[in-house]
Structures are given as C-alpha cells and as structure tokens.
Amino acid sequence: MRNPKHRWVWTSLFLGAFLVATMNFGCSKSGGSSDERQSQEAVTATVTVTEVARGDVSRILQLTGSVAAPPNRDVRVSSFVAGRIADLVVAEGDRVGAGQVIAKIDDRPYRDQLTQAEAGVAQAQANVENAKLNLARNEDLFQKGIAARKELEDARTESRIAEASLKQASAALSLAQLQVSRTEVHSPIGGTVVKRFASVGEQVDGTAATPIVEVASLGEVELMANVPAADLRRLPVGTPVQLTATSLTGRHFTGHVVAVSQAVDPTTNAGLVRVRIPNANSELRLGMFLSAQIPIETHTRVLTVPAQSIYRDQEGKSRVFKVDGENATAVEVELGIETPERVEILGGVKEGDKIVLTGGYGLEDKAKVKVQDSQKSGASNDSGAADKKAAEKRDEK
C-alpha cells in the first residue's frame, strides 16, 4: 500500500507545474497583443500630401562679395615729397572735390632749394651775356685782323657752354618750383574721405608706402564676385542683378554686369565678374557684404514638386512617396533644376499624382499612412523637421 504522504507530494508538484504553465501562457498572449499594437502603430504614419504640378523653375546662381569702388574711383593719396605734415584739413567722412588741397607738407627746405636754383639761373644768365659780349668782340677783332682764329673759336665755345649752363640752371629751377608746389597735397578725384592714415606732425617719405588719406567716389559701387567657369557664359555684360545687403534689412538694390573676366583662376576654376550698382544716396559703403541671386537657366511648364517632398534613401537616391488612399509607395525620381522652394521632376511621376509632403521620414518603401489636411496641420515645415528628427533618433537606436 502506497504511503499517503508520498501521494500528497506528487499532487502538489503537479498542481504547481500546471499553475506555472497557465501563467506563462497568459503572459505570452498578453505580450503578443502588445507587439501587434506596436507593429500596427509603426506602419501607420500621419502625413500631409501635395500634388505634382506644372510650373516654371529657374536655376539660381548665388553671388557674394563685398562693396568696392569702381576702378580709378578709389585712391590712396600720398605726398610726392618727403617731409613733416604741417597741416591736414580733412577727416574721415568729409567730402572733397577734385584738385582740392587736403594736406600741407613743411615747405621750408624746398623753398631754400628754390632760392638756390633761382640764384643759379641768375648766375648762368650773367655768364651767357658776358660770353655773348666776348664773342662779339673777338669777331670784330678777327675781322680787323687783330685777333687770331683760335681766340674766335674759344669765344664761340665759351658762349655755347654758358648757354648750356643756363639751360641746366633753368631745369634745376623748374624742379625746385615743382617740389615746392608738391608740398601741397591735392585730391586727384572728387569723393569722400573714407580713411585717414596720418596726422599733423607725422613724417612721410614721399612714396606710396605712406599714404595720408583714402578718397573714394561712391556714386556708383561694385560687387566683385568669383563665378564658376561653367557659368561665366551665362552672365553677359548688361545682365540685370538684384542684390541685398545683410546690414540693411529689407533693402534691395539693382545693378548690372559691367565686365566678365576672360581669365580663370586655375586653383578655383572661377572667374571674376563685376556688377555695377548705383549708389546715389551713399547707402552702400566700402566693405559691406552683398549677395545676389541671378536666374541663369529657366525651364517652363515642367513637372515640379515642393523641395521638402523629396526624400533620400540610404544610398542618397532621390524618391517621393506616391499616395493612393491609405497606401504610400516609394518611387525613385530623377531631378532637374533644384531651388529651395521647388524641384523639377524629370521622370517617375506624372502631373496630378498625390505625394507625401511631410511625414515621410522613416517610412518603409510600402507603408500605411493616414492623410492629414495640410491646412489643419498648421506648420508643415515644423512637422517635416520633427519627422526628420524622429527618423534620425530611430536610426540611432
């Protein structure tokens, strides 16, 4: 006869195993339904849509650079003679006329040289007159047979030497007068003093290495921009250009291309383009940063979509998501001209196709979507940015 105690032990073990199996089954069933719900949520995304439409799109060439004065309208004025600056009558911002005196160099050493040169001319003039009298006297004596021919020739030589000395002294006088006149420094052009490099009492060496002031004529200014060699032919002289200045919010300026370089920098493969801009009110100042957008190629009546509706796969290929009801399918597309707002589509879709505008980041090639009214969504750009961040986070995980 079996021991009742052993029977009770076996019964307890059986009941325990049954309870564990039941609990595991319940947990497994509960976990499976949670995974299904998560899977369902993963494949259903809320998106906004747009349509493929026809329109015009232009390829824009971006030009940037700083304001510069046109050629020969921006000069650094230097003194032609060395010395100490005795007077400087202009400051930055002053307007000056062509030929106006802007500085004075101490002229005392040059006036002494002028006095010396004047004395030299007077002496040379006296020598010439004396040589002429001596020559006339010797000619008269030679005619009377009193003077020898050699004396006559010597008198003629002395007369020519005296005349040459007079010319030399006259040239020295002219140079001394020029040096005195150069102690007054004149502006070669009319314009505005944009920079002052020296002050009264400072020494200048009479070369361009020590300028006194910079004068620029800013009635017109230029943007000097480097353009890729392939686009130079698209910018003929006369092309209108719309420009903006970062420091002048809301202001727009109109200029035109005045010159296109015939040489290209071999290191950058770019050439220089000069854009002339009227500046009657002097709003544009030297060194200001300017930017310009020039449409250099326009395609009309082509298929276009918003730029934010283009998504890239892991290989960098462009694609859109065509929407049919609740289904979104990835379609690879070929792009033409791209702008920040619209993109030209060369193939892959047709006019009127509905495609995902926002919400496409992280979608599979085929996915279930819920279309949201883009007008009710408020800010599609913010939604697209949020989708992009969410997709990046999922990729990191």
Structure description:
α2 packs antiparallel against α3 (149-181). Helix content is 34%, strand content 36%. The protein starts with a helix and ends with a helix. By secondary structure, the chain is an alpha+beta fold. Residues 16-22, 24-34, 36-42 and 375-397 have low confidence and may be disordered.
Oligomer: single chain
Q: Which series of helices and strands comes N to C?
A: HEEEEEEHHEEEEEHEEEEEEEEEEEHH
CATH-level-2 architecture of the largest domain: Beta Barrel
CATH topology of the largest domain: conserved putative lor/sdh protein from methanococcus maripaludis s2 fold
Mean pLDDT: 85
- How far apart are the first and last residues' alpha carbons, in Å? 65 Å
CATH top level of the largest domain is Mainly Beta
Biggest sheet details: 6 strands, mixed
Helical stretch tally: 6
Q: What is the tally of beta strands? A: 22
Structural class: alpha+beta
How much of the sequence lies in strands comes to: 35-45%
**Helicity level:** 25-40%
Please compute the radius of gyration using only Cα atoms. Answer: 46 Å
Low-confidence stretches: 16-22, 24-34, 36-42, 375-397
Shape designation: rod-shaped
**Major sheet: order of its strands?**
16-17-18-22-1-21
Q: How many discrete structural domains?
A: 4
